[in-house]
Amino acid sequence: MFGFKGRSKVTMIKNPIKWPNGARCAVVFTWDMDADSIIHLAHPNDADTRLSTTSMLRYGPQIGVPRIIDLCNELGVKHTFFVPGWCAEQHPQAIELMVKNGHEVAMHGYLHEYPNLLTREQEMFWTKKGTDAITKITGKAPVGYRAPWYRYSKHSTDILAQLGFTWDTSLMGDDNPYLIRQAGGELIELPSRWQLDDWPQFVHNHDLDFMMPIASPQCAMDVYMAEFYAMYEHGGIWLNCFHPFCSGQVARLMMVKQMMLKMLEKGDVWIATGEQVANYVREQVTAGKYVPRVDDLPFYEGRLPELAENYAPGN
Amino acid sequence: MFGFKGRSKVTMIKNPIKWPNGARCAVVFTWDMDADSIIHLAHPNDADTRLSTTSMLRYGPQIGVPRIIDLCNELGVKHTFFVPGWCAEQHPQAIELMVKNGHEVAMHGYLHEYPNLLTREQEMFWTKKGTDAITKITGKAPVGYRAPWYRYSKHSTDILAQLGFTWDTSLMGDDNPYLIRQAGGELIELPSRWQLDDWPQFVHNHDLDFMMPIASPQCAMDVYMAEFYAMYEHGGIWLNCFHPFCSGQVARLMMVKQMMLKMLEKGDVWIATGEQVANYVREQVTAGKYVPRVDDLPFYEGRLPELAENYAPGN
Amino acid sequence: MFGFKGRSKVTMIKNPIKWPNGARCAVVFTWDMDADSIIHLAHPNDADTRLSTTSMLRYGPQIGVPRIIDLCNELGVKHTFFVPGWCAEQHPQAIELMVKNGHEVAMHGYLHEYPNLLTREQEMFWTKKGTDAITKITGKAPVGYRAPWYRYSKHSTDILAQLGFTWDTSLMGDDNPYLIRQAGGELIELPSRWQLDDWPQFVHNHDLDFMMPIASPQCAMDVYMAEFYAMYEHGGIWLNCFHPFCSGQVARLMMVKQMMLKMLEKGDVWIATGEQVANYVREQVTAGKYVPRVDDLPFYEGRLPELAENYAPGN
Amino acid sequence: MFGFKGRSKVTMIKNPIKWPNGARCAVVFTWDMDADSIIHLAHPNDADTRLSTTSMLRYGPQIGVPRIIDLCNELGVKHTFFVPGWCAEQHPQAIELMVKNGHEVAMHGYLHEYPNLLTREQEMFWTKKGTDAITKITGKAPVGYRAPWYRYSKHSTDILAQLGFTWDTSLMGDDNPYLIRQAGGELIELPSRWQLDDWPQFVHNHDLDFMMPIASPQCAMDVYMAEFYAMYEHGGIWLNCFHPFCSGQVARLMMVKQMMLKMLEKGDVWIATGEQVANYVREQVTAGKYVPRVDDLPFYEGRLPELAENYAPGN
User: Global pTM?
Assistant: First the structure.
């Protein structure tokens, strides 16, 4: 649990972790390379008839990923890529590019299925299948995880801990890294935030039933950088969730480049992969230098007793 | 009823109240600390499987509220927190923090149930249960109320008056405080406005079926401050409805801080709790110094007679 | 029909009308004073349980209209108010204020029912009922019309012409005034545009199933004024559709004031009521000084023959 | 397949085509002149009762197209118009204007029907019917195609190649022109992007079930020009999808004019029709000077084998 003692009056982040080399905050750029898995999941019976959206989504592994990696090389930073196992199998060259250039390849299900709609057995089956697919191509078992569509389940912590994962970024409970714990084990949580996702800013597509008005890169950057300036001012972690088919497009990747340049310019910002940050947090915890907040999962089992069946409806 | 006599040609607010100490307008910052009650209400049977959204919502009492209170202490202002009784029971430490620091704890149902979907008996039951939960933790019966999702019912005025409440902020009928009256009693209404809510600017969440494009804090502040400058210019009351899980996040609370600083800078703005404002209004009314507009509730009983069953459909 | 001869190379408006006194364009501010008719129409069976939205909507006639009229007096301009007959009956004092101050009171149905969902007989019944209600209060039969929700029907032209109406603003077929013609008569059409409506910018309300992100007054003004600058540059008519419950709120009416001031500043803009503009257009047409485009209505009768029953579905 | 060799470190576009005369990028302005076909398709049985939306849509061929063509003449550029065959039959004067002024008239179905909901036979029938309608009016068989609502089908490539088409712009798989290939033939693909469409910025209409918040022309231009500056910086093709009923309105066409002026100012931008660009690409490919990426279509046949019937649901 976080404490109230000893913190500075001016910081908005309680219990800040001391980042390495005097960095004021940590930054983790993450990309969900879903490719066209999501159109199959959304429309399993006629995804094959939706060619335009499929082409838009395959842009991710085919055009977006190599371009993102070039940019990372140019700026000398490492990113984290979440990849559903099936997408890795379909686009091994994109994964190899990630590996060869030193980026983290992390897990994102097998076919972008939603864990919280699965039984524990189903989730274990698909999580293992996705993990195996990644491991086979990268030669290294993934240790980081984001649940597809952030739909982390009541069993995910147990399953992930059992499979050797060390960190997750599906939850949104803090600005600091924290611990999530269940009977079967525990993970470092590097929390996500919807305002650091690129779908609400940019995605407009009827096949995906997601119809945002589409922001300019400049307007979207204002949203993302407001979060950065907040973390820079007050500590904490900035961890985004972008998608190669979307923010891997030229105009938007130019925005990403601008963002990275602004962050690098500061000089005291730690840009690293999720794995690197999670490892650092674990070391700090183990060494007793950081006492993180802990969330014991799951939060609930079944319907709230207060919500008796005859309770007034909510909608 | 408001009159047309004696008002200045330049003000847009008719029948302005004379605020204390020459203040040009009143400002009440209010927060609805719903915690995760709303996910249980929206999805009673599988809320337990929606961990990410639950974690996002629990951020409110766990991270947001202490941070908001720190900020209030830093700036020396008092806010009003609307809390469903169940949320108070689940997060008593957050409530204690509010009380200890002199903020108002007001009522927001028991489990965020919607009063206008309840019978009078059900609404009395849950309103009383919520009120008791708050009272038990704060040691003081709440006197202020906002209906969950603004869904004030035809019975709410009677029930609230009977339970000792003095003010409400669920309605949107004016820019000035006014009176709402029913057979069973009357309340001071400090009106809300949708444009002072943070959901339309910031909330994007599929579990909550609420998918806004997510504004930058700067763009949202333009909306909120336009309302402030309007009230500052013309009198009236600025009363917002923010949520700790949302605007209690660092980047947005920095926006709230900026807003408060801009208001404080003016020197002639009265920032107070809803209770303080309601008490002041009541005194002015009792002393005959302010003749407020009165809305007799409910507005209607049953279907409009003009809308006979065979009336043409509206959609 | 519009011709291509003789027009200036630089104007984007073909066949521009010559506005009076050398004005470069005409401006008609219109307000739909729907009051709470729309909540009854949307939810006939439980509108009485939706008090917050009802209070928000009644703000229109009670607070918005007097304020708008004060502003018009301050700036010396006349506006046009579309009022459903039932709303006039419910709020006669608002209508009397319009009349006393020289504004146009025009027709907007009886209970905001949608004409294009009615039979010809039903539409005649409700249109007549609405017209009678207005006439009774204003002492003058209305001559202008906007269909509720712009839902003009195949019978509206005939019915309106028969009842003595001279102009309409439910259609969107041009930038210039034009004629709409049917067997039973013809009307001057002063076209509307969705981008000059205030709902897409400002309305967010679950009871009305209309959930926009809510723009700042400044951002909305950019949309409205871009249309004005376009009309000022190229001729044509700027005719908006605002709502007293919405843009009659202080912050937004300050925006309206700014807009009017910017227009008045130009010196060569004709701000008038719809009736005045329609009368002028009719005179020009009668005098042979303006040959307007004509739309013969209705555009279609029944399903397109090309769309045979076995035609491929569109969705 | 695109290669990694020889490309500049600084460009984000791999395998850039060498545009003529040293141009840094190609720009193709395209307009979908759907007229009111889409309201008939959306509501085949009562489209005739939706007059306001019909008038809004007919503004496209009647007002928008002549104005767009005037603007093109003023600036000396040629655009591409996609026209459903039925719309050409209904509005031959608009088509003749396009032809007379040297613009490309390309194919967009017969009644805006969605190819991916048709059988191969149905699609052939309607595509041929649409093509014949265009040819009859223009005197030249169209060679370019955009599927209505981008809904390109698994059979489209075969059908289009068989009917003599040479290029398409329904897909979104790249920033460069590329090839799409099927058993029956191949086409040059000049890819579209949702962010270059005007519906997400401007369209708000209940009859069309499309309710965007409506951006100002300036805000929308920021989205469109960010894409242009990206292509100008890195190569590739900027190809938009605007609609005469929407961006043919004065305020928006003034935006289009500004955009074209900014592009023309550069001096090294190639603004051309889709046909001209596709021909150039074909020549470069034939001459071995450009090795384009190739997408073999369709991407899939039937349900993914991995998505067994008992696979966990995605929603």
Answer: 0.96
